[in-house]
Amino acid sequence: MVGPLWGFFQLVRSSGHIPLSIDQYFFFVHALHAEAFRTVSTKADLLALMKIFWLNEPGFEPQFNALFNRFFDDKVLWKILPDQKTENEAGDDGHDHGQQEKTSGPEAPAPDPSANDDLKKDPGKKADHTQDARSEIELILKDSTAGEGKEAPFKRELAHAFALSDKSIMPFDARKFAQRLRRKVETAEQVSSDRINAPEMVRQFVELGFIEEIIYELEDASYSNIVLFSDRFGSMLAYEYLDMQFRDSLRNIPHCTFEHYAFYNLPVSSEDRRGFLFTPADAKGGEISSDRHPWTRNTWFFILSDAGGHSGTVNRQRIIRTNQFWTFLTGISEFVYWINPIPAAYLNDCTAKRLQMKIPMITPEMANLNQLVKEARTVR
Amino acid sequence: MKYKLLEPGGGHDLEVKGREVNRYTYTYHFSGQGLVTAPIAGRKRKISTYIIKKQLIDAVNAAIVTGRPLLLKGAPGSGKTKLAEAVASYFYHDEAYKYYFEWHVKSRSRARDGGYVFDHVGRMRDATISDYDKKAGKRAADPANYITLGALGYALQTRTAPGYKPILLIDEIDKGDIDFPNDLLLELDEMRFKVNEMDNTYIEAHKDKKSNEQIRPLVFITSNDERELPPAFLRRCLYYYIPEFEEPLLRRIAVSKMKEFYQDHKKKAPAGLDKEKDNPLDPFVRKFMDLKDTATGSKPPSTSEMLDWLKLITFEIIHKGRRLEDLVDDGDIQRITLKLNA
After folding, report:
1. What topology does CATH give the domain A167-187+222-377?
2. Closest Cα of chain A to B166: distance in Å?
3. For residue B226, how many other CB atoms are within 10 A of its CB?
4. What is the pLDDT of residues B53-92, one digit of tens each?
C-alpha cells in the first residue's frame, strides 16, 4: 500500500496548503507497520491516522479531507482482504502490485522500491496476508490505461475560497499573517541625538543625588514599516471586517510603525497629486501624508481594494489613476502588495481585470499570504 | 523495541480512572547515581478520571511508536493538559509522578530552562566568601553544584521499566517567545542538550541495554493557537485537534465525574447513573448542549466549565438537599460556573 500513500503524500505537498517534509512520510509508514495500527481497515481510519501525521493546522482540515476523498475515490482501489471485496466496482481480480508501475501521468505516484523488495525477499508474503491483521486492506493504484478509460480526470481543489466579511468563513487568520510578517519587516529603534536631555538629567539628580552620565535626547529614527491603504467606499464596505482584521493584526506587530489610510479608489477632483482622496483611517479629514514617518525602501505597502471588481464596468480614468498610484508606491519600495478580496476567476471584463494585467493582485487566503511573505524573503 | 501502548477498553474509548498518586523529590547527581527520586511522605495528588477517545488513543500510540512529540490543540477546557497526566496514570498508576514531568511555558520562558537552570548568583556568592568559608570554596569549584535540572532534563534522565517511556508535558508552548519553539528543535530531535557551564557534558535520553535504542520520552505539547508555530517545529510533531465532544461522550464524562465527586464527599452516588436510557444526568447534558449553542458569555462554555457546573450541583445536592432537576435550571449557578452573561 506504499505506492498510493506516496502519491497522496506528494499531492498534499504539491497542493501548497501544508508544508510537509519527507520524514513525515516515513514516520507515517513506520506507524502503519506497528502493531498498534493493525486495526486501520477503513478509509475513515486511514484518514484519521494521516491527519495525525500530516496535518498540523486545523484550518487546513477541509482541504485535506477534500484531497483525500478525491484521491482515494478517483485513483485508488480499496481492497479488503481476505474476502477480496472491493469497494469500487472498477476493480477486478487482475489488479496486483504490478499495476503500480503501469500508472502514468503527472499524478502517478513513484513506486516504492521497498514494497517490491519485501515481496522478492519473501515470496510467501502475499499468502500471509490472510493471517496478518495488518494486511486486511490493500490499496492499489487504478490502472488509468485499462478498461474503457473513462476515469474522471483528477480535479485540483479550487485555488481560492470567496471571502466575505463574515468571521465564520474568513479564509485566513490575519493575526497569523502578521506574525509571519513580523519576521520579515525590519524595524528601527530610537537613537541618541546630540542634544542633552536636561529634564531627564535633573530628574536623575533629584533621585540619585548625583549625575551618573550625560543623557542625550532620543531621536525617532524609525520609518513607517507598514502602510495599509484600505478602500472603504462603495462595494468595499462589505469588506470592512477584513480591513479591521488586517489593521488590528498589523498594528500589533511589536516595534513596528504602522500607518493606516482609507482611500477612495476613484479619481476625484482633489488637489492630491496622485488624484486620489486619502484620509487617515482613524481620523477625520486630512490627506495622505508621509510627514509623520518617512516611507523608505524598507516600507511595506498593502492596498486592500477590489479595484472596481464589483462594478462590472471598465473605467478608463480609474485605470490610469490606479496605475499612477501603483507606480508611485513601487518607486518607493519593492514591497507593494495589492490584496483584492475578489478572486481573479470571478472577475468579468472590468476595471480590476484590466488592472491585473499590470498589477499583481492576490486574494486574502492563508496560502497566498504566506507565499507573499516567503517570496519577499528572496527579494533581498 | 516494543513499547507498551494505550489499549482501548471494551468500547472504542478508554476510561482512565481517577486516583491519588504519590509526589516525589528529584535529585540529579552528575557523577554516579544519575537521577534519584524519593516519594514525599504524606503528599499525594489527585488525578481525575479522563476518557480518551479512539482517535486520540491512536494519536498517543503513534507518538509512542514513532518517538515524535504529539502537538495537541483544541478549545480551552477541552482536556489538552490533563491528557498527559491521565496517560501517566494509565501506565504508572500511583507512581505516575515518578515518570511524568510538567513544563509550563510562560512568556519569559527560554528553551534552555526546560533542560536546566544554573544558579550563577549562588556560585558567585560562594566564590566571594571562599576565603572565609572553605566549604563554600570547595562548592564553587564544581559547577555541577549549581545546576538544577528542568522537566526536560528529568524526563531524559528517568529510568523506566523496559517497554515504558517517561512522559513530558510542555504546556502552552504558544505562550513562549516567538523563537521558543525553534530553540527546542535540537532537543526534541536528538533528545539531548548540552550543559554549557560544564565541559563536554550532555544530558541525553537513556538507551535500552539490550537493543541500544534510545528511549525517547513521550512528549505532549499543548497549544491554544495564540501564536502560529514555525513550520520547522510543526514538521517534527504529530498533531491532534481535540474536537468538541458529542452528547453521548459528554454524558459518560459527566457520569464518571459525578461518581468521583460523591466519592470525594464520601457519599454514595445516586442509583441509575450507569443506565443507558433515562439516565438522571440526561437533562443536565442536554441543558449544557443547549446553553453552549445559545447562551452568550465571554466564550462558549467548554467541558471544563461543564464539570465545574456539575461539581457545584453535586455540592448543592449533598449539602443542601436540593434536587438535581431544579438545579439544572438554576440560572445563577449556570452564570457563575459557565461564565455566562446575566
Report:
1. Rossmann fold (3.40.50)
2. 19
3. 10
4. 888 999 999 999 999 999 999 888 888 999 999 999 999 9
List CB contacts (< 8 A) between A31 and chain B: 62, 65-66
Q: Is the pLDDT of residue B165 over 80?
A: yes
Q: What is the CA radius of gyration of chain B?
A: 23
Contact across the interface for A24 and B235, Cβ inside 8 Å? yes
CA separation for the pair B248, B246 (Å, rounded):
6
d(CA B232, CA B234): 6
Which one, of B219, B242, B235, lies nearest residue B54 by Cα?
A: B242
CB-based burial label for A288 (10 Å; 0-12, 13-18, 19+): middle
Q: At what angle do helices A61-74 and A2-15 cross, to 10 degrees?
A: 140
Q: For chain B, list the domains and their CATH numbers.
A: 14-242 (3.40.50.300), 247-338 (no CATH)
Q: At residue A50, what are phi and psi to the nearest 5 degrees?
A: -60, -40
SS3 B171: strand
Q: Are A97 and A116 in contact (CB under 8 A)?
A: yes
pLDDT, tens only, B306-326? 889 999 999 988 888 888 888
The domain segmentation of chain A, as residue ranges, is: 2-141, 167-187+222-377, 193-220
Given the C-alpha cell 500471509, which residue does it identify? A128
Interface confidence, given as ipTM, is 0.75
By CB atoms closer than 10 A (0-12, 13-18, 19+), residue B188 is: buried
Q: Do B59 and A52 lie within an 8 Å CB cutoff?
A: yes
Q: What is the pLDDT of residue A92?
A: 39
